[in-house]
Amino acid sequence: MAVAERRPARRHRALLPLLALGPTALAGAQAPPVPTVRVAFASAAHRAAVPAFAWLCDHVVQQPGWPAGRDRTRPFAATFDPQGVTLLGDGVDLPRGVVAAGTCSLPGLELLWACAADGTEDWFVPRDARLPEAWHALLHGLQLDVVDEPRSLDATVVIGHLAGGLCEGDPRAERLRLGAAACGEVTWTAWATPTHWRVRGRSGGGLLLPAALLWLAREGASADPAPLPLRAFAARDGDRAEAARQSVRVPGSATEQTLVALLHADDQVAFAAVDALRRLGAAHALPQIVAVARPDVPWTELAAAEALQALWPAADPATRQATRAAVWRCGSAAVRAVDLEALDGAAVSPRPAERAAEAASLRLRILVWLALLAVGLYGLWSRARLRLRPAAG
After folding, report:
1. Do residues 228 and 76 lie in contact, with contact meaning Cβ atoms separated by under 8 Å?
2. pLDDT at 200
3. Residue 54 contacts by C-beta under 8 Å, 6 or more apart in sequence?
4. Sign of the C-alpha dihedral, residues 197, 198, 202, 205?
5. What's the longest Cα–Cα distance across the chain?
6. Average pLDDT for consecutive 10-residue bins of the chain (393 residues)?
7. Which strands, in side-by-side order, build the sheet including 36-41?
8. CB–CB of 229/41 below 8 Å?
9. pLDDT of residue 389
10. Measuring CA to CA, how many Å separate 270 from each of 248, 298, 303?
11. Radius of gyration of the chain, Cα coordinates, nearest whole angstrom
C-alpha cells in the first residue's frame, strides 16, 4: 500500500456533496460532544457486497421509525447518534462502486469517508484534528495509532473482550458481537499528507463501522481490558508476537493465563508465548508447553525443549507427573530428547537432601568413634609403658 498522497480519484471528488449532510454545512453549528455519523447507503443489491453494512442496514430498516410502505431495498441516508437513528431520505447519488459514504463528527474531529464494494474504505482526517483523551489512550494502548505501518486486528476478538463487561442478556452485547463478526479482520495503513491524515483499510464493514462498534463496546464496558493481552489476542500481524514478548513486563496470573492461551496460536506467536512463560518462571505451565511442541512448529518445538530444561527443577511433584505424561505423548524429538533423569539428579529435592544429611551424619559418627578408639588405644599404650618402666630399671 502506498504511503504517499495521491491526487483524489474521481469517486472521491464526487463525494464532496456529502459534506452537506455534515455539521460543517450548517451555519453556526458546533461539533457534538459525542460521535455523530451521517451516511448515505447504496441500494440493497450493492451494499450486500459488504456483509457488515448489509447487516447494519437490515437492522435500520426494521426500526419503528422506518416509513411505512417505503421500499427497504432503495438507497437511503441516515444519521446515527446517541439518540438513535434518523432517516434523512434518499441522500445523494453515490459514485459507481461505492456502497456507503458520509461524515463522522467528534469534538475536535471531523472526517470524510467512503467505502467501496470490496470493503476498502478511505478516511480523510484534518492534520489538526484532536481526539478525546480517553480515545487517544485506547488507541495508543492497542497500537492503533501507528503511522506508515500496515496493521491488522480481528474485530470479533476486540469487541468480544470489551463487550464482555456488559451485563448478561444485554441486547447491546449481542448486536456488538454480531456486527463485529460481520466485519471480521480489519487491515489498514495510515500516513500523513501536508493537509490531512490518510487512512485506508478494508474489512467486511470498511473502517468506520468497526471503529463505531469499538466505541460503543468501550462505552458500555465497566473497565478497559489490559492493552497487552488484548493486543496479543486480537492482532493479526507481527504485533501479536511482540505483545506476547512484552507481557513479561506485567507478571501475574492473568498474564500467564493469556500466554498459555497463546500457545495454540501460530508458530511465531506460540514461540514468543513459550519464551515469555520461561522467563516468568511459570513451571506450572510445563504440561501445556510440552503438549504444543510438534515438528510442524519448529520454533515452538525448540522453545518448549529449552523451557522444559529450565523450568523442570522448579516444578512441583504433580506438575512433574503431568509433564512426564505429556512428554510421553509428545511427537517432538527435541522435547523427548531432554534427559529428565539427569535433571532430577541436578535438582534440589527433599529426598536427595535427606540422603546427603544422613551421609554427613554417618561420617561424623565414624569420625567420633575413630577418635574415641584412638584415645582408648593411646590410654592402653601409656598404661603398658608405665608398667614396663620399673622392670627395665
Report:
1. no
2. 93
3. 44, 47, 48, 182
4. positive
5. 147
6. 33 36 34 72 91 91 84 90 83 88 83 92 85 74 81 86 66 82 91 89 92 80 70 81 83 87 89 91 92 91 91 90 90 86 60 55 74 75 69 51
7. 84-89, 76-81, 36-41, 98-106, 109-116, 120-126, 196-202, 185-192, 151-154
8. no
9. 65
10. 15, 11, 9
11. 35
Residue 2, pLDDT score: 32
3-state secondary structure of 371: helix
pLDDT at 167: 57
Bridge-partner residues for 105, per DSSP? 36, 110
- Cα distance from N-terminal residue to C-terminal residue, the chain: 119
Residue partners of 385: CB distance under 8 A and separation at least 6: none
449481542: which residue's cell? Answer: 174
Going through the chain in order, the beta strands assigned E by DSSP cover: 36-41, 76-81, 84-89, 98-106, 109-116, 120-126, 151-154, 185-192, 196-202
